[in-house]
């Protein structure tokens, strides 16, 4: 198993994969925002939510559905900004995962990653990380 990566490149590849995996798991989890409503604990992420209110038309009241679920459709996401956040965060996670998997393949395949490809991959990782940081509010643009 020959590799075109240096020792630092191999470490970078594994750390990149771990970070990409953590970002993807965080993207799919509904625990971005935590709070309470109708005296119940609620949480939601970009396209999933747990313990959410639903209008019961028969009783003319609002009841809490105490389970996790996705929005019925993309248009059911509450606002345009939230839809944009879902798309941009998903793209950021996808870019991070693509680069991390390519770097891991570079650990196993000789001459897969040249210096130029490594620089391009680092740039893509930077953009993917920037998208995630901007959307999560960690970085103001």
Question: What is the compact description of this entry?
Answer:
The protein has helices at residues 7-28, 80-108, 115-135; strands at residues 33-37, 40-44, 48-56, 61-70.
Q: How would you describe this protein?
A:
The structure is a single chain. The chain is α+β, with helices and mostly antiparallel strands. It has one domain. It has 3 helices and 4 strands, in the order αββββαα. It has a 4-stranded antiparallel β-sheet, with no helix packed on it. A hairpin with a 2-residue loop joins strand 1 and strand 2. Helix 2 runs antiparallel to helix 3. The longest helix has 29 residues. The radius of gyration is 20 Å and the shape is elongated. The termini are far apart.
Low-confidence stretches: none
Please state the average pLDDT score. 78
Q: Which structural category do the helix and sheet elements fall into? A: alpha+beta
Q: Tell me how many strands there are.
A: 4
From the N-terminal CA to the C-terminal CA, the straight-line distance is: 43 Å
Oligomer: single chain
Q: Helix content range of the residues, please?
A: 40-55%
Globally, the shape reads: elongated
Discrete helix count: 3
Beta percentage is 15-25%
Could you describe the largest sheet, including whether it forms a barrel?
A: 4 strands, antiparallel
